[in-house]
Write a structure and sequence with these properties.
The protein has 334 residues and is α+β, with helices and mostly antiparallel strands. It contains nine helices and eleven strands.
């Protein structure tokens, strides 16, 4: 059976031995391995005999190169050293490397594996408050300021975020029974608008490393302190992209979006971007997520397509007609 046709339970069972194989490269005595998340990537909680706890990430769907993952690890290490941000710090293996690879027979390729320091607390998720979103804005401004003065190490690189799909392969152009002519027309019109927007923004600001996936499920809160994690989508872009990505998940709660931007403005000037271009970036995020659904190997996520695609078309059509991107529209499938 192909990996992408297996259930989540079966996929995780096939990945668990690979996680243990990856952990053998670290100077740890592992006592427990517990699934935390199985989606685009798969993450396990690792417990040790010394009572320490870590997070092990297997890049199951990611197509990142060694140089790109090396850049991600180097930036995280530099942020931990140079800022007061709470982050997952990559842990060195016995050979000193900050990540390794394990071969998957099911997928026919190497899966990058990295071990990180443990971040306590709960994801912000749907419970985020304005005060917490102000902290997110402050953290984003700190990330961007650090990225402006930091240089990628030799032999590493990050993807360019100057296209609608952020350098991901375009699965929206492939043949699929759900992609009707109407769907393709709406997607094409939004694609053109996002492309034009990115062209203007990349001329108006200085591209630099971005988190590029800054939403409430990649943020933790513990004892009044924010932690930022999951830098797997990091790439070279302009700072307003991080704010637009975060805002996508906050709609229609205007008070949270306003808190995000005010938090950022309390640390640094807001990036240059007109309101129409900001809305285009938010709509573009929907294209990225739809494209990911078509390409993922996780069966439970692929099963969302029959509902997610028509809802996407409804939202994008409304954006084209009104200039505003919204999630709270009538007629969406539950």
């Amino acid at each position: 059976m192909d990996f992408d046709q297996r259930s989540q339970r079966s996929q995780v069972a096939r990945l668990r031995p690979l996680a243990r194989q990856a952990l053998a490269a670290y100077p740890l005595e592992v006592t427990g391995l517990r699934l935390l998340h199985h989606g685009f990537n798969t993450t396990f909680r690792v417990d040790t005999v010394q009572g320490e706890r870590y997070a092990l990430r297997l890049n199951v769907n990611s197509r990142r190169t060694r140089g790109q993952i090396g850049a991600e690890m180097a930036w995280l290490a530099a942020l931990a050293r140079d800022t007061d941000l709470v982050l997952p710090v990559p842990q060195p293996r016995r050979d000193g490397a900050l990540f390794g690879q394990v071969w998957s027979e099911d997928l026919g390729r190497e899966l990058p594996a990295a071990l990180f320091s443990w971040l306590p607390g709960r994801n912000l998720g749907d419970r985020a408050t304005p005060a917490q979103l102000r902290a997110v804005g402050q953290a984003a401004a700190t990330l961007h300021a650090h990225a402006r003065r930091w240089s990628l190490p030799p032999g590493t690189g990050l993807i360019a975020l100057d296209t609608p799909l952020m350098d991901s392969p375009n699965t929206l152009a492939a043949e699929h029974p759900l992609l009707t002519p109407e769907c393709r027309e709406v997607i094409g019109l939004v694609w053109t608008r996002v492309t034009d927007t990115l062209g203007r923004l990349f001329q108006a600001d200085t591209p630099r490393p971005l988190h590029a996936d800054l939403h409430a499920w990649n943020l933790k809160w513990h004892r009044g302190q924010l932690a930022v994690f999951d830098f797997d989508d990091s790439g070279i872009g302009v700072p307003v992209q991080d704010l637009a990505i975060a805002a996508y998940y906050l709609r229609p709660r205007a008070e949270l979006e306003e808190a995000l931007l005010s938090g950022y403005a309390g640390v640094a000037a807001l990036p240059p971007c007109s309101p129409p271009d900001f809305e285009s970036l938010i709509a573009g995020r929907n294209l990225v997520l739809l494209n990911d659904l078509f390409s993922t190997t996780t069966a439970e996520i692929r099963a969302l397509l029959p509902r997610y695609l028509p809802n996407t078309v409804t939202k994008l059509r409304h954006f084209l007609e009104s200039g505003t991107y919204r999630h709270d529209l009538p007629g969406l499938l539950e």
